[in-house]
Task: structure prediction
Amino acid sequence: MKSAQISGLAITILAIAYLYSFAHRISDPTDSAPTVGFGILLVFFMLLISAVILMNSSFRLWSKEVRLREGFVNKWWLTLLGINSILAVSYTTAIVAGIALILKTVYGN
Result:
């Protein structure tokens, strides 16, 4: 569980760092559109992987028995769990909204 929580946060940080590294090129007219599109798609899938990892472990860690068994007892781990739970729910919401937007764009109404 601890490795899942740390991995999820690490993937999130990597996705944000990668997004920041190419975000200024989105409005640059000299950059090719496929390159920027691939970068956005890569960040999307990194956040999707992070959400899958975090949703599973975060939901299971809401039980006090599981938290005690897994060693999530001090403030550091509980803070990490809280942050990752918020991130996982927001990622999932954003991914569902993105998929809905894509489906609405492709299929019309």
Remarks:
- The radius of gyration is 17 Å.
- Residues 75-107 form the longest helix (33 residues).
- The chain has a mean pLDDT of 83.
